[in-house]
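To close the section, here is one more complete example, presented without commentary so you can practise reading it yourself. The ligand is KG4.
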Amino acid sequence: MPELASRAHMQNIVPVVDVAIKQAGIDLKNLDAIAFTQSPGLIGSLLVGSQFAKSLALSLNKPLIAVHHMQAHVLANLIDDPKPDFPFLCLTVSGGHTQIVVCHSPTSLEVIGETIDDAAGEAFDKSAKLLGLPYPGGPLIDAYAKNGDPQRFKFPEPQIANLDFSFSGLKTSILYFLQNAGKSNLFKEEFTATPLEKQEFITQNLSDICASIQGRIVSILINKLKKATVQTGIRDVCLAGGVSANSGLRKTFEETGKQMGWNTFIPAFAYCTDNAAMIAITGYYKYMEKQFADLSVSASARASWAVTDKS
Ligand code: KG4
Ligand code: ZN
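Output:
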C-alpha cells in the first residue's frame, strides 16, 4: 500500500527523529551529518525521508549523505565486533533483492551475482501465500519448518550457470505440488486434487512442506555462495538482509562455513531486517571519504549502486 506507507512516514518521521535524538542523549547540533536512504524502495516513502533530511541538513548547515539501501544492508556487518576483513563476500537476501557482493572497502562494492526474477524473501512470502499464510510469510515458514522434515518433499533446484539466482521456478513447482495434493507427479501440472483435498493436505503436512520449501531456498542460496567463495578465493563471508533472520539459513551458513574454512559473520538480529543503524554506519564511512550529496539530490525508486561484473 504505497500511499499508506508514505502517509505513515509523514506522520512518524518527526516523532521518530525526536525520540532517537533524546534516547541518544544528544542535541541536533551535535550531529556531524545527515544520512538518508536515497534508493531503492517505494518512491513516496523515499521522498518523505529525502525531503526531511535535506531540510534538516540545510537548517543545521550540516553535510548531507545519500545512502543506497543495499549497500547499507552489507555494511550492517561493520556495526559490531568482530568485523570481517576486506575484501569480504556478502550474501544479501531481502524482500526485494538477492545479491552476492564483493565488498572491497566500505565504499567500493561489486555485485557478482543476483536474482534474475524473484528475491529470496519473495520466494518465502509467495510460497507462504500459496499455503494460505498471511504476509510476510517468511517468519511463519521459518516457525513451522522447525517441526518439519526438510527431506520429505524434494523441490527442484534451478540450474543457472553463473552466480545468479532464480526462484520463480520454485514457486511454480510449489503451486503444482499443492494442486496435486502430494498425490502423483509431484511438480507437474496435473490438477488432480479438489480444493478440499488440497486444504487437508496442507493442514496435515504444513510443517514438512514448510521445512522442504525452506530447505530448498537455503540450498539454492548456499550453493551459489560456496561457488562464489571458490571463484573469488575470499574467506570472510557475511549474511545480510531480512531473510538472514531465517534460522535454517543461519544454521546452514554456519555449518557450511565450518566445512569450507570461512570466517562467518551475521549482523545482530535487529540489524538484519530494515533498520536505521545500517544507514548510519554507511553514512559514517561516506562521511570519512567526504562523499556528500548536493541539495539537488533526488530519491529514486530504482538505482544501481555498484560495478556489476559477472565475469
Ligand atoms: O530486508 P527486509 O527487512 O526488507 C526489504 O528490504 O525487503 O526483508 C524483508 C523480507 C521479507 O520477505 C520477509 O518475509 C523476510 O525478509 N524474512 C524472513 C524471515 N524474517 C524476515 N524470511 C524467512 N525467514 C525469516 N525468519
Ligand atoms: Zn531491506
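Once you have examined the C-alpha cells, check your reading against these statements. The beta strands are 34-39, 64-68, 88-93, 98-105, 108-114, 236-240, 263-265, 307-308. The chain is about 45% helix and 15% strand.
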